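Input structure tokens:
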């Protein structure tokens, strides 16, 4: 057993892993990407690579450590959030992907401009997304580096800079194609590392999986106070978590550029569907493994070795197990997997911000940019945003602004989530116009800010936020559209009423 924490062998494995990722990123960027290829790829990336990239993007290191920590300290109640995929993926496949594919959108916010025929909405949406991503990338550089620095003794500044620089290099040189392939490698390492950790944990627990199942059957799956359904649908229950999570994930699939960018890499609907189903299976499967690990850690540390880790925070318990219970070498692989979760999220963030800034904002002010100019501009954005995120992350590591940034991320996440309501309005209403879209965004933002920051926290459960914001967006947007409307209807192929025609005529699909 490895009782000494992080060893020099683990360090060598971690460094070797980082070198492999960097070399892979440079290899896949060896073909010069210009113009739209830099943002949407050249069509050569297999669907399964994009699917794993989508999975790796959605699983941040916060999830990596937090999911196991949740079931270690409590029950599996939040595992049901993963079942939201069973709502989000069918909705996205049926109502969103055919529209995006037929329109051949460049970014998520390109849809808003063409649907509501207003450039301003596209720019506003892109700015919200970019500001949110800047904060998110800074936190995601900081958190795993903080944990790794404590375990390895390596200076936290070095870890942050290393993580940022490697992500900048391959997102700068190869665009989305390089990011997708490196994300694929990171995703495979992540999945492999988590599975290895589970097997080692099962070996160390007296009674193995059977003991874990016993505890799950006696209060660790759902506690007696946790409800399957509550007549007050704004109160916590399994039903609300599944539905609320489903609507949140669906909103992300429609409105978050880092995810939508994966959908723009192909117009082939069959490939897009396979991509989504595989992503759902990976997300649900890996989340289940994390929750098993969390319950296993509870059995190992709280039941069979009681009192040995009382001082360890729940979100750090998995990291502690990795360092002090796994064999030498395996520790290095799994710490590399945590680093992988961070790097895949950062590289995706850099590329999606560069894409959105270039196509959604810069092109509004600089008409008819050449492919070469467009690509160079995106690369400079990627570089500058990466440097900015590294600097902010280092500032966070040496000051007490972490909580302020978490508040900022929560607020921006709330506002960004409201964009989903505007997209849904565009999809489902032929009569919705630009005035309705602006009204939906403004009214739902006011309502949600009041709910989150003025009402007492117990009044409305967090998982009801998406349900409320989408409902408010639809009602307010539709009413204002009717009051300000004219005879014009939505442009062709921009609403769910065009989907049967889109699917019936697949000739456009064959041309790409």
């Amino acid at each position: 057993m490895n009782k000494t924490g992080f060893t020099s062998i683990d360090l060598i494995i971690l460094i070797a892993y980082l070198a492999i990722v960097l070399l892979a990123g440079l290899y896949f960027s060896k073909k010069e990407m210009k113009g739209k290829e830099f943002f949407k790829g050249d069509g050569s990336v297999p669907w399964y690579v994009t699917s794993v990239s989508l999975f790796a993007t959605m699983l941040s290191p916060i999830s990596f450590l937090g999911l196991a920590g949740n079931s270690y300290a409590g029950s599996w109640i939040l595992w049901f959030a993963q079942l939201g995929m069973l709502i989000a993926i069918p909705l996205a496949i049926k109502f969103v992907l055919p529209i995006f594919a037929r329109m051949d959108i460049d970014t998520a916010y390109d849809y808003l401009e063409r649907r509501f025929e207003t450039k301003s909405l596209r720019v506003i949406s892109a700015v919200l997304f970019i500001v949110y991503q800047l904060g998110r990338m800074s936190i995601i550089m900081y958190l795993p580096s903080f944990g790794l620095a404590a375990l390895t003794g390596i200076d936290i500044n070095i870890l942050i800079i290393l993580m940022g620089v490697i992500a900048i290099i391959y997102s700068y040189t190869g665009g989305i194609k390089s990011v997708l392939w490196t994300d694929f490698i990171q995703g495979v390492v992540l999945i492999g590392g988590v599975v290895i950790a589970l097997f080692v944990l099962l070996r160390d627990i007296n009674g193995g999986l059977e003991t874990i199942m016993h505890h799950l059957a006696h209060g660790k799956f759902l506690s007696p106070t946790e409800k399957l359904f509550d007549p007050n649908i704004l109160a916590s229950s399994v039903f609300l978590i599944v539905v609320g999570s489903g609507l949140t994930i669906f909103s992300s699939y429609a409105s978050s550029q880092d995810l939508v960018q994966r959908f723009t890499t192909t117009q082939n609907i069959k490939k897009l569907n396979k991509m989504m189903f595989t992503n759902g299976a990976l997300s649900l499967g890996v989340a289940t493994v994390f929750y098993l690990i969390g319950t296993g850690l509870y059995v190992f540390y709280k039941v069979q070795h009681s009192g040995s880790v009382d001082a360890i925070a729940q979100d750090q318990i998995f990291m502690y197990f990795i360092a002090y219970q796994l064999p030498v070498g395996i520790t290095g692989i799994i710490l590399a997997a945590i680093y992988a979760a961070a790097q895949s999220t950062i590289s995706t963030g850099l590329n999606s911000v560069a894409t959105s800034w270039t196509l959604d904002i810069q092109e509004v002010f600089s008409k008819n940019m050449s492919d070469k100019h467009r690509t160079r501009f995106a690369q400079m954005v990627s570089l500058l945003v990466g440097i900015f995120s590294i600097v902010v992350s280092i500032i966070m590591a040496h000051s007490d602004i972490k909580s302020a940034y978490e508040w900022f991320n929560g607020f921006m996440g709330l506002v960004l989530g409201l964009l989903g309501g505007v997209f849904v309005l565009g999809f489902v209403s032929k009569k919705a116009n630009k005035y309705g879209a602006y009204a939906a965004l403004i009214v739902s933002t006011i309502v949600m800010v009041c709910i989150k920051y003025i009402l007492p926290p117990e009044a409305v459960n967090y998982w009801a936020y998406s349900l409320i914001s989408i409902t408010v967006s639809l009602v307010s947007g539709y009413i204002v559209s009717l009051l300000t409307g004219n005879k014009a209807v939505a442009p062709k192929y921009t609403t769910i009423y065009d989907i049967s025609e889109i699917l019936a005529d697949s000739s456009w699909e064959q041309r790409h």
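The mean pLDDT is 86. Residues 156-204 form the longest helix (49 residues).
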